[in-house]
């Protein structure tokens, strides 16, 4: 019984001491997250600007549209 308690206590202490600092530095993680946020915001901003811009598309009449657009006598 004492050996089991001693073994579990040693195992617990070993687990606590083997846990070191985080694998990734938090500052680096926050800097990368900021880069991703800026990139996503830039995509959204550009898409919104493109949607608001006036369209320069000229619709050419097709034969079916030309017949409908022609004044009827």
Helix and strand arrangement:
Layout: H1 2-18, H2 26-52, H3 63-69
Task: Please give a structural write-up.
The chain has 73 residues and is mainly alpha-helical. Helix content is 70%, strand content 0%. The chain is built from three helices and no strands. The radius of gyration is 34 Å and the shape is rod-shaped.
What structural category do the secondary elements indicate?
mainly alpha
**Shape, please?**
rod-shaped
- The helix content is 55-70%
Tally of alpha and pi helices:
3
Order of helices and strands: HHH
Average pLDDT over all residues = 78
How far is it from the N-terminal to the C-terminal residue, by CA? 109 Å
Strand content: under 5%
Rg computed from alpha carbons, rounded to a whole number of angstroms: 34 Å
Total number of strands? 0
Structure keywords:
70% helix, 73 residues, 3 helices, mainly alpha
In short:
This protein is mostly helical and 73 residues long. 70% of the residues lie in helices and 0% in strands. It has helices at residues 2-18, 26-52, 63-69.
């Amino acid at each position: 019984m004492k050996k089991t308690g001693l073994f579990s206590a040693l195992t617990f202490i070993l687990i606590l001491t083997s846990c070191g600092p985080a694998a990734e530095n938090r500052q680096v993680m926050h800097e990368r997250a900021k880069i991703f946020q800026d990139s996503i915001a830039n995509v959204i901003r550009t898409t919104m600007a493109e949607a608001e811009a006036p369209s320069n598309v000229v619709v050419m009449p097709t034969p079916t549209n030309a017949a409908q657009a022609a004044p009827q006598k």
